[in-house]
Amino acid sequence: xxxxxxxxxxxxxxxxxxxxxxxxxxxxxxxxxxxxxxxxxxxxxxxxxxxxxxxxxxxxxxxxxxxxxxxxxxxxxxxxxxxxxxxxxxxxxxxxxxxxxxxxxxxxxxxxxxxxxxxxxxxxxxxxxxxxxxxxxxxxxxxxxxxxxxxxxxxxxxxxxxxxxxxxxxxxxxxxxxxxxxxxxxxxxxxxxxxxxxxxxxxxxxxxxxxxxxxxxxxxxxxxxx
Length: 226
Description:
By secondary structure, the chain is an alpha/beta fold. Helices cover about 25% and strands about 25% of the residues.
């Protein structure tokens, strides 16, 4: 039976089609999920894509967090379903309290778009098992409000528990505390990051294919536990 990975589309989503393509390239079935859906159509994992959900009004991700589909996403994530939040999706995960902290305006106050080097800090999550800790990858980054912030106690806990999944290399592009590019929850099934792995799955269109490992990782985990 084909593994089904849902990709949510909110009003203002930008990268949902790219995420669905990445899922298909990895070998799974990409299932479109609409923000008004009250169920998840029997998917095995969920991707919250990048973009500008609900126009980024109030705060990035603040309105999307209350969309009907998120009720099911939050419930299933707490039950162990793998959930990946990319850029705006990371913001939605923080607003939903599935991940701690918040994403704020870039410290230089400009939108940034570049190919970004990252170091893999945790290869034991549902979305990173095809990497090794210490691997260095390059994927696109594009955001205006991508600075990860949290209080010192939360940052210390993330570090001590190995929940920092990716860290920026060469340059901190947005002022994120401790160069944090992505984090996970305690169970390792929910991962959020600001860079865009779905834009680095084909050599024709991406700077590398380094992002494909996100999608092959979760596919292998789901197949193993099927």
